[in-house]
Structures are given as structure tokens and as C-alpha cells.
Design goal:
single chain, 140 residues, mainly alpha
Length: 140
């Protein structure tokens, strides 16, 4: 060996590891909370049209953005957004009896498309893992 020291690699170059049990439980809890917000928003938005729609979308944005910042990773914002999307998609199907939650109106479409847009924006704005230390810059 020539006696050279091995360069340190950044955090982003490390192999992925599965999340810890606590973090996985947190993501599952956020997924369920996102589904609850989706169901509540689906029931609230037609009951009080302009205000209910805005309140439902604000609740989703607050949950996704707040969870992303609280967890400190993008997965914190993606988990409730995925729960919201799954719950809303399951509520769009009609039952054999003819019952449905979403009517074919502008409010329902604004809730569906606006909720998807809010989820994408919050997942994009969530903090991501950043490397720290001296290995961040090359050839310093």
C-alpha cells in the first residue's frame, strides 16, 4: 500500500437500508391519517361547497407538508399523500346498489384534481436527505 488514506464517501453514496421499526410504524400511521383526511374531505367538500373544498384541501396540504417537515424526509410527505390518494380512489367507485360518494360535479373534480396537485406539491417541497461534512465539495 502506498499509505494513501481512503477518501470518505458522502451520505448519498451509501447503500439504502430499510427503515427502522419506529420509522416504518410512523409511515404506516401517516398513511392511515392521510386516508382519514381523504375520507373526511370527501364527505365535507359537497356539504359546504366552496368552504368545504378549501378546508379539505388545506387539511391535506397541512398534513402532507407538516409530516414531511416533522419527519425531515420526503417519505414523511409521501406516506399521507398515498393514503389520501388510495382512500379517494376507492371512494370514486360506485357500489352495486347505485350508491356513490362523488357526484359528477365541478366540486368533486376540483377536489380530486386539486388534492392530487396538493399532494405532488407537498411531496416536492418536503426536505430531502442532504450530505454534510467536508466530502460535499469535490476538489476543494
Amino acid at each position: 500500500m502506498s499509505g494513501r488514506t481512503r477518501p470518505t464517501t458522502s451520505t448519498l453514496a451509501q447503500p439504502l437500508r430499510p427503515p427502522s421499526l419506529g420509522r416504518a410504524a410512523l409511515y404506516v400511521g401517516l398513511f392511515v391519517l392521510g386516508a382519514v383526511i381523504g375520507v373526511a374531505g370527501a364527505l365535507l367538500q359537497p356539504a359546504w361547497f366552496p368552504g368545504g373544498l378549501l378546508l379539505a384541501l388545506a387539511a391535506e396540504a397541512g398534513l402532507c407538508l407538516g409530516a414531511g417537515r416533522a419527519v425531515g424526509r420526503r417519505g414523511g410527505a409521501v406516506a399521507p399523500a398515498a393514503g389520501w390518494a388510495l382512500a379517494v380512489v376507492l371512494l370514486t367507485t360506485s357500489r352495486p346498489e347505485g350508491d356513490f360518494v362523488f357526484a359528477a360535479g365541478s366540486g368533486s373534480y376540483l377536489f380530486l384534481l386539486g388534492g392530487i396537485a396538493v399532494a405532488v406539491m407537498c411531496a416536492t417541497l418536503a426536505p430531502v436527505r442532504q450530505p454534510d461534512g467536508e466530502a460535499v465539495r469535490l476538489r476543494k
